[in-house]
Design goal:
Layout: E1 3-6, H1 12-27, H2 40-48, E2 52-57, E3 61-72, E4 77-86, H3 95-110, E5 114-122, H4 129-132, H5 134-140, E6 144-149, H6 151-154, H7 157-160, E7 167-175
Parallel strand pairs: 4-5
Antiparallel strand pairs: 1-2, 2-3, 3-4, 5-7, 6-7
């Protein structure tokens, strides 16, 4: 069992490396060469906003992370998770589930009504298998398909221009 904690500034190098390696593995073929899911400057912003949770093995350093963003509207508080990564050699050990469950508990304690996440798939069926594997995993944790969003509504223009494949964004939601 890992210790789940807020990020520290000293996690910057290991977290940017972990996240970029994981997203290169699963989404690298969708982006122009050199695309980074977590540039160091973005870590600084997310860390300052206290949005990153880190999984750390006792004496083993950072082995996973997840980002949670809380949004308050006049009617309710909700959360969104993303930037979820686990060291490749620890996938399948329950570490990812522990990270997600930690954030689900945290969101519920804060009074969130629901939590959502986005999965990006290439529209080419032959090339979507890596992301398709994640869908049943999230469904087992209680997330259900909510809607598809246009990537132009999701990504800023500079990031959108770095995509090299046509993709769709599916939003999955869990009521808390």
């Amino acid at each position: 069992m890992a210790l789940i904690r807020p990020s520290k500034f000293s996690d910057k190098d290991s977290l940017t490396s972990l996240v970029n390696a994981a997203y290169t593995e699963f989404e690298g073929h969708l982006w122009k060469p050199g695309h980074m899911r977590l540039p160091p400057a973005m870590f600084d912003i997310y860390h300052a906003a206290q949005e990153i949770r880190v999984a750390e093995l006792h004496g083993g350093g950072v082995v996973g992370c997840i980002r949670v963003v809380y949004t308050e509207s006049p009617r309710e508080l909700s959360a969104n998770i993303g930037m979820f990564a686990v060291k490749s050699e620890l996938r399948g050990t329950g570490l990812g589930k522990q990270l997600v469950q930690h954030v689900l508990s945290e969101a519920k304690e804060k009074g969130c009504s629901w939590i959502d996440l986005e999965l990006m798939y290439p529209r080419a069926e032959w090339d979507s298998w890596k992301m398709e594997r994640l869908k049943p995993w999230y469904e087992r944790l209680g997330f259900v398909f909510d809607r598809e969003v246009e990537k132009a509504d999701y990504f800023p223009a500079d990031k959108l221009g770095r995509l090299i494949q046509d993709c769709r964004m599916d939003v999955f939601k869990k009521i808390l």
